[in-house]
Specification:
Largest sheet: none
Number of helices: 7
Oligomer: single chain
Structural class: mainly alpha
Helix content: 55-70%
Amino acid sequence: MPDGDQPSVDANAVAITAEHGVRPRREILREVLFLLPAIFLAVAVAAVFKLVPSVSAAWGGLFQPDKHPLLAPRLVGLGSALVGFLIGGLWIWGTRILFTLLFNKEAMGMGDVHIFAAVGAVTGWIVPSLAFFVAPVIALGWAIYLWVGKKQMVLAYGPWLAAGAIFAMIFYDHLIAHVQPLFVVAY
């Protein structure tokens, strides 16, 4: 180590590893502990809606425009933004947790989570779900270039997530037309 107590850091490195003085698995487990109260709260709310029909009926009534013409459209919009925010963020945060635990180095940064949560809040849950699968395809060409041309093994993924989200928004109808038949349930 050059300074005696500080590890050297590669200027091209993006991922945090144990070589940088950080234990990625321990850090990611702290994130999981941070998420546990929200998970328990979601399970408790779902249980209340399932076990207490009057609560479910009262809540559902708030979303009916004939009963609440001013409130219902606003609640639907808020709910759509909230679900999009959660699903968009969870796609990346779940990937971050899973791959950090598997490879013992930071798989994705929290900035990636923020990008997808914001995309989901603005567009709903479908666009970040499509973009999650489109972004790696778009990034693959650049990753090969970096690997072959510059011998770089690490890729900043945030710009590719944003590009995947833009692609999913522009070609939304075309993507849905190809993806939707995969989710048709035969009875």
